[in-house]
Specification:
36% strand; 15 strands; six-stranded antiparallel beta sheet; alpha+beta; 200 residues
């Protein structure tokens, strides 16, 4: 009987991790003549980080986002209840097949945002390794995975355009940005080094 419960629990967990996360449509004000839209992917252990609307005269108005790295995102990804949020960016091959990024207890999601056009955007991705402790009466073994974070890269979005930010597959750290056409085709954006405001 105990084996049946264990098998059932494993089946529920694996089912929760399989397939695409549900997509929830978010209502937001989007002004295509002044703004761009951007999609970020993330999941438990693999966040994507963005700083947008960078204006060196008003640091308080910068838009900082971490998809997959917040406690809520990480927990939802872990238990398989996480949802993706869309504001209407066309589907791409990656968003359509986001379930392929799922790991055991790590459901992949995306979030979409409207950002200010013509102002620098900094993006990076990370892999956060887990620490596992195994104990017996004779010894304690601690296994710690390596963690990494990509170099922060930068680009300037254009008004009315759509973009997506994708981290490397697996445990590697790297980040790429693609422009999305109206039919969902993507083309890579050339990235610059992290944008930093000059010290006065």
């Amino acid at each position: 009987m105990k084996n049946i419960y264990i098998t059932l629990a494993c089946t529920v967990l694996l089912t929760a991790c399989a397939g695409n996360a549900p997509v929830v449509r978010q209502n937001t004000t989007y002004l295509p003549e002044q703004q761009a839209r951007i999609r970020l992917y993330g999941q438990n252990q693999k966040p994507t980080i963005m700083t947008a609307n960078i204006d060196c005269t008003s640091k308080g108005h910068w838009q900082k986002v971490n998809v997959g790295g917040s406690m809520g995102d990480a927990f939802g990804s872990f238990v398989g209840t996480a949802k993706s949020h869309s504001i209407g960016i066309p589907e791409t091959e990656t968003s359509r097949n986001i379930g392929k990024k799922n790991g055991l207890l790590s459901k992949a999601v995306f979030r979409e945002f409207a950002i200010q056009a013509g102002k620098p955007v900094n993006v990076s991705a990370a892999y956060i390794g887990l620490t596992t402790v195994s104990q017996s009466p004779q010894r304690t073994v601690i296994f710690q995975e390596g963690s990494c974070r990509s170099a922060t890269a930068s680009f300037v979005p254009q008004a009315g355009r759509d973009y997506e930010v994708i981290g490397l597959k697996g445990r590697g750290c790297g980040v790429a940005v693609y422009e999305i056409s109206a039919n969902g085709h993507t083309s890579p954006i050339t990235l610059s080094d992290e944008f930093r405001c000059r010290k006065q």
